[in-house]
Amino acid sequence: MTVTQPFEYAVANGFDAFEWFPDQNSSGIGWTENDISGELRTYIKNTALVYDIALFVHASWKFNPLKAEAYELLQRSIKFAEDIGASLLNIHLYSEEELNTFAESIISLIEGLPGRIRLSIENTPDTRPEDFNELFRYLRNTYLENSTRIGMCLDLGHANLCNTTRNDYLKFFDRLDQEVPIIHMHMHENYGDSDTHLTLFTGPAGKDPSGIKGLIDRIKRRNFSGSMILEQWPQPEGLLVEARNRLLKMIGK
C-alpha 6: how far from its chain's center? Predict the structure, then answer.
């Protein structure tokens, strides 16, 4: 698979949003932003404009703003996001230290982002809804000026793996304070055992879609207006179109 194949698939099949995720692991498998040439970045930006596709960038899974090597990784992601015309940068929440410490690093990060790019903070399997309540409470109290540029990325599969809400992502959602702004979503499934990133409706929702229906009802009540990203590259790829179409039907579009 080439780096651009999933994007080209999204274009060909009428998707209106796409997230780039430099996923190179410690063995060198995958790609980084450095693998995307200037010419290719221009192609991505222009293609997205022609087909009206919103673009987002997921920072490398190695990026942790609490670590010394974070600055270089961040600058690489920001430059890539700028070059392709992305409107959002997504990072993971790390809660191994005091959340106030993480929040302070986030404030510094958002101040360094170009004006059009928002920041979303994603729940991992290790983070609880209460961590996000505390984080955004701190951000509201200390950083009001650009608070609209920061929000949560709700990762459905990760919520399903959280120790305190395992196999019940709706419980995770319901334990989020109303004041936590959900601006972005990653949609995938698992059986509560590992982060398998199953395409929607090929895991538990394939037999019982009531959980997805409950999620849709909840995000409508919150007036969610962000994008829902199908965060996987399945075989066959047609599972993505099937999931998208079924999800849109449930949403009522």
Answer: 16
3-state class (DSSP) for residue 253: coil
Which of these, 154, 55, 142, lies nearest to 102 by C-alpha position?
142
Can you tell me which residue has the tokens 């059009």? 116
Q: What is the CA radius of gyration of the chain?
A: 18
Which residue pairs from 165-172 have beta carbons closer than 8 angstroms and sit at least 24 positions apart in sequence?
A: 165/128, 165/129, 166/192, 167/191, 167/192, 169/211, 169/215, 170/211, 170/214, 170/215, 170/218, 172/123, 172/129
> Residue 58's closest CA among 232, 220, 218?
232
Nearest to 20 by CA among 184, 231, 195: 231
Angle at alpha carbon of residue 119, lines to 47 and 110, rounded to 5°: 120
8 A C-beta contact, residue 131 and residue 93: yes
Candidates 110, 92, 96; CA nearest to 231 is 92
User: Residues 197, 232: contact at Cβ < 8 Å?
Assistant: yes
- For residues 124 and 187, give the distance between their C-alpha atoms in angstroms, rounded to a whole number: 13
Span 154-208, pLDDT tens digits: 999 999 999 999 999 999 999 999 999 999 999 999 999 999 999 999 999 999 9
Provide the angle, in degrees to the nearest 10, between the axes of the packed helices 129-142 and 99-111. 60
* Dihedrals phi, psi of 36, to nearest 5 degrees: -100, 110
